[in-house]
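User: ok so my PI wants both of these folded by tonight, can you help

Assistant: No problem, let's get them done. Here's the first:
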Amino acid sequence: MSRKKETITLSIPPGTKEKLEAIARRFNIFWGKSPSPSGLIAAIAQQELEVGEPFVLTQLQLQALVKAIKALINSGEIKDAQLLTELLFERGTLEPFLRQSLLRQISQPTEIWRKILEEQIQKQQPFLLLYLNSQGLEETFTVRWADLKFFEKEFYLLAWCEETSGSEEVLALVHNRCFRLDRIVNILPINKIWRKNLDFILVQLHFLGELAKKYQKRVEDVEIWASYDICKVTRKVFNTFWLMQEVLADGENCVVVSPDSVRDRLKMRVQMMAQQYNLAIYKE
């Protein structure tokens, strides 16, 4: 037995019927071979479709959401990253390359590598690290000590590696490496001896002005001497890149006093910046 249908009479302006038929045709709603305005109204009432201005993301909105997805993945919030990716796939007009890139990030997230690395570190298990460098070339490193650190909203692998070729570190730290998790290709356990820690050097820093007053002790700090306008800190440093990022961000209120290998490296960075702005450099 067929269901009894209700009948309503609509009072609509001239030309509206044709517009309804056009919308019904667009959504493939037909009665026989003709578009069905009544079928369209029923579909709207049953919330089977939406009409009106389509929800479209601008290019800037797309870029912001892609950055947000990457930040969520890097911080371990995989479920939130997946939900945001689903929204982009549903509502955003994505180029094929970007769509594939997002799919790779979700299907092979850095969270997987982070968990594997945490297991290796907890067991003190040395491993081979297969890694893609910045040129996209695969390299292999023999890792005999490792730890995960959170820098600038992203997890990094700090590792002591047997290989030193290509290292840009100061001589005492050439075995120390810093790896991005999203460039890891594979991790393979090996039979080696786990080390006690990374190599380190002692760096003397002077914090001036407001930084001297507000300085808070860090785990790596070995010695601190503070007065009203200066705070002298001796710190264990495992990676000069992150140290220089900190010093440059603090500007004139932070000075590397020693060793010369680190001080000279920082001076070179400052000189290069000055040349870009056509500034004269004071010679010691």
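One down. Here's the second:
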Amino acid sequence: MSADKWCARTDLALETQESLKKANTDMRGVNFSEKKLDNGIIVSVVTIDSENAVRATGRPKGKYVTIEAAMLSEGDEECCQAVTRELSRELKSFVKAVCDKRIYAALVVGLGNRNVTPDALGPRCVDSLFITRHIVKEYGRYAFSNENVNSVCGLVPGVMAQTGMECLEIIKGVVSEVKPDFVVTIDALAARSTKRLGCTIQLTDTGIVPGSGVGNHRDGINHGNLGVPVIAIGIPTVIDAVTIVSDAVNASRENTAKLMSPKLNGMFVTPKDIDETVKRLAGLLSEGINMAFSNDEYDDYRE
């Protein structure tokens, strides 16, 4: 396999920015900032605002926020709570940027295959959401202790192998009926670095292309295709096997390429405790989303 036949895939804009910087690539239009919070949490922001940046990164224009916390992968309770609060704050900021309504309607879509553990993050997150649309529609907002309740509904479209339909086709149909002010997608991602598996959350206002991180590109779920803003949230649960081999042998690109087999280039690796990790992270994401979308009525629901 020649050196140009393989590449380490990543869904994280932060990792793309790091790779470009390391390669001394022209990064005009790629802006980066970082802040460190308590509990070892690092929040990074990558903005892509020029055609040059789009070509260099291979990503659409927009804002990419990454929340990193090494202790998150260990299930540290205090860290999980801090990350949940930060996720809620960041999501509220994204919502405010795409929707100027005080009371809004949101559709949350859990992407992925529920039957494949590393890919079940989206569906399992939606399972734990505080859904309100049906109650608001049937009884009105006064059914809650706070009349300023947002209308939230969820969808798990499955994958094409299960339904015979593109996720985009299903979501477009639901959007046309429900008419949300914006859509939030939840999906499992692929990372370039093993240190980011299960402990990194990415939020972006650009939408998402399901399966792109593992080379299985589907139609993009974005504002252009749906007609409403799309906020994408994801956590990396797999890493390209090529990346692991490359890092392990610590060789040049040419020598590493000789060690790669065609089969290895299509293989992805996930942590051995991924079942427990996905369960924990799905709960964290749903809690953060519930906090961002809800007011007093969610506190009542939790009690």
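DSSP finds twelve helices and nine strands in the chain. The chain has one domain: 8-239+274-302. Good luck tonight!
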